[in-house]
Design brief:
Blueprint (H helix, E strand, L loop, with lengths): L3 E5 L10 H15 L3 E6 L12 E4 L9 E2 L2 H9 L12 H14 L5 E2 L15 H18 L4 E5 H15 L3 E5 L3 H5 L5 H13 L2 E4 L2 H11 L6 E3 L21 E6 L8 H14 L3 E6 L5 H10 L6 E5 L4 H8 L3 E4 L9 H7 L4 E4 L12 E3 L4 H13 L1 H15 L4 H16 L4
Parallel strand pairs: 1-2, 1-6, 2-3, 6-7, 7-8, 8-9, 10-11, 10-13, 11-12, 13-14, 14-15
Antiparallel strand pairs: 4-5
Helix pairs in contact: 1-15, 4-5, 5-7, 9-13, 12-14, 13-14
Length: 431
């Protein structure tokens, strides 16, 4: 009998802004090969998602609380969600609370309350993100009552609250997947509201999947989760849709690439400082920073201060084929992340035969052998590694060849098999 999963995610290709959507896609395809059926709920679907391995449920099309069974534990849970003034269109928070309380007072688990509302999700990460996270959680209860499934799987903090609501409404077990923590994104200056959501989701879950041992240790240490409850399943990379790209290089110099969000977590400032050191000894090179983020302007100013702007390029955010074209023009790829739960981009670079340099503070460093590893803060070591790969072509050729062979062994099908085993462990005691 097939395992059927109600999976909550925030994004799914082709509409992605980072590794979360890519990982969700790879995992679902891997699970499908193991006979797992998946209902994938996302805030806003574009209609052009690949549904060969999943059935996409567009939360924007779901009608909220249609003849909703007023289980007391559900309503009690909903009340703790911070609801903004624009949270429920056509039904303000005060009326929502009043209707919920009235339903409970009326007694009986089969009392019905009818709210007919659809939410228009942006599916983005903008200023109304917290409102959308809460709306998504409210709709999760409706979806959980409408669908049949064996287990709930929630990806990252954006969907943990939705996972908890679905668990309380359905009584089905919950697995939360930690792709990153607030400590990765913000260091010690954490957003308390996000941390609280993460912690609540991890404690409510029957099992926590971490994308690396690095992340697993953070979950245990900073969130107080019992070690036996946290399982590491390393990410992989999907190359089925990969096609060889032949790109004519527009510059004669060597190219060193940084690709990722330009935020504290990704360590862009260390890449810039290393670039400055390399250029003093190897001027025949151009550095590319591909991405966007809240540190972009700061990065541009620092490049200008160092007077290396003629050797430094900012491309903005790249996706899809543009990423492959960028790698096709690169001689070295660098991921200097301060704290990287996993890190799929080095695998994509290696698939293009590009030698890589990654920070030791990354989950992917746990599985890669043929990648140069440095501490993110050790700019001298990073610069030396870049220089070595540029100045010694034989070294770069070996690193590229060995890396390509290694990364081809990291398959989502293998990661999915481990996730399926987690499902079976959690479901079995309840049957």
């Amino acid at each position: 009998m097939k395992t059927k999963v109600l999976m909550f995610g925030w994004e799914f290709p082709p509409h992605i802004s980072g590794g979360l959507g890519t990982a969700s896609y790879g995992l679902t395809k891997g699970l499908a090969k193991h006979g797992v059926e998946i209902l994938f709920v996302m805030p806003k679907a574009g209609g052009d998602e690949d549904q060969s391995a999943v059935k996409i449920i567009n939360a924007s099309d779901v009608e909220m609380l249609d003849e909703y069974s007023s289980r007391e534990d559900y309503w009690e849970f909903v009340r703790f969600i911070e609801i903004g003034s624009n949270l429920v269109p056509y039904l303000d928070p005060e009326r929502f609370e009043k209707e919920a309380a009235a339903a409970i007072r009326a007694g009986g688990k089969e009392q019905r309350v009818t709210f007919r509302n659809k939410f228009r999700f942006s599916g983005k990460y903008g200023v109304n993100l917290m409102e959308e996270v809460a709306r998504y959680a409210l709709l999760a209860g409706t979806i959980a009552l409408q669908e049949e499934f064996d287990i709930i799987h929630a990806h990252d903090w954006l969907t943990y609250t939705a996972g908890i609501v679905a668990k309380r409404v359905s009584g089905k077990p919950l697995v939360v997947h930690v792709h990153a923590t607030e400590f990765d994104r913000s260091g010690e200056n954490i957003n308390q509201q996000v941390y609280d959501i993460e912690r609540r989701g991890m404690h409510a879950a029957d099992r926590v999947i971490a994308v690396s041992n690095l992340t697993r240790n953070i979950v245990i240490k900073h969130y107080g989760i019992a070690p036996e409850k946290v399982v590491t399943v390393h990410n992989a990379v999907d190359f089925q849709s990969y096609k060889e790209v032949t790109e004519t290089r527009g510059v004669p110099e060597k190219v060193v690439t940084f690709l990722g969000r330009i935020t504290y977590q990704k360590g862009p400032e260390y890449f810039i400082e290393a670039a400055n050191k390399v250029l003093k000894h190897y001027p025949n090179v151009r550095f590319v920073m591909a991405g966007s983020g809240d540190m972009l302007n700061r990065a541009i100013r620092r490049v200008a201060q160092l007077k290396i702007a003629t050797h430094f390029h900012f491309t903005g955010f790249l996706r899809g084929d543009d990423v492959q074209r960028m790698f096709a023009q690169s001689d070295v790829y660098v991921m200097p992340s301060v704290s990287e739960p996993f890190g799929i981009s080095p695998l994509e670079a290696m698939r293009s035969g590009v030698p890589t340099i990654i920070s030791k503070q990354s989950g992917v460093s746990e599985v890669l052998v043929h990648s140069i590893k440095v501490d993110f803060w050790d700019v001298d070591a990073m610069a030396d590694a870049i220089y070595g790969l540029l100045a010694y072509p034989a070294l770069a050729r070996v690193a590229g060849k060995e890396g390509l062979e290694e990364v081809n062994r990291l398959k989502w099908e293998n990661a999915a098999e481990k996730v399926k085993h987690v499902y079976e462990e959690v479901i079995s005691p309840r049957n």
